[in-house]
Amino acid sequence: MKLDFHSHILPALDDGATCIEDSLMLAKALKDWGFERVTCTPHITDLHRNTPETIGAAFMLLKEEIEKHEIGLDIRMSAEYRLVPQTWPEVLEKNWLMPIEDKFILMELPITKPEQMGDIKPLEEFKRIISMGLTPILPHPERYFYLSRKELMSYAEAGVKIQCNYGSLAGLYGEAVEQNVRSIIDEGIVSFYGTDLHNAHYVKVLTEWFAKGNEIAEY
Ligand SMILES: [Fe+2]
């Protein structure tokens, strides 16, 4: 099945869709590319302090609008949990985990500044999630230039599923990320690809990339 576990299409919750019209435009693009089921994963970070309530309300709104406009896209709800002290301990304490497909938790690291994690050690948090019977997904490792290959391999060996972005292959984040994603793929550790869809620019780049014959992965 053509699934996307990573998208920012819910309206006005984070740095993705800004309003419901924007959300519908992104949902249409996902449908046009061929995705059958898409999980909405707004950020839960210090900058975007979402909760299951804020996400749930935006999700219900988009679900209704998708039905009203007959877009034909099956959407689900989760979050992209960033390992930062402002929100991750609260997520655990208040039981805000909303597993993707009943088992996966999307756990991102800060994009450029690992010091933002404070005392949080990613491997310990991944193991904590595994001990709860869930499976962590690490999104876009190709964008974390501070993350050593050895560290990344240790996450994969611990049972973390590695998810790269289609956009990285399409050149959306520049040449260095594109080279990095290809070298990570060569390691044979990538389980999933995601759109990480945020806005119209992503739509433009990915539409061109899919039009060139690049295909959606099936799980
Ligand atoms: Fe994301």
What's the CATH first level?
Alpha Beta
* Element string (H = helix, E = strand): EHEEHEEHEHEHEHHEH
Count the domains.
1
| Strand segment count | 9
Mean pLDDT: 98
Distinct small molecules bound, one entry per kind: fe (ii) ion
Distance N terminus to C terminus? 5 Å
CATH topology descriptor: TIM Barrel
Shape: globular
Beta-strand proportion: 15-25%
**CATH level-two architecture:** Alpha-Beta Barrel
Structural overview:
This protein is α/β, with parallel strands linked by helices and 219 residues long. Helix content is 39%, strand content 16%. The strands form two sheets. Strands 3-5-6-7-8-9 form a six-stranded parallel β-sheet. A three-stranded parallel β-sheet has the order 1-2-4, with helices on one face. The longest helix has 17 residues, at 52-68. The model has no long low-confidence stretch (mean pLDDT 98). Fe (ii) ion binds at residues 6, 8, 80, 139, 196.
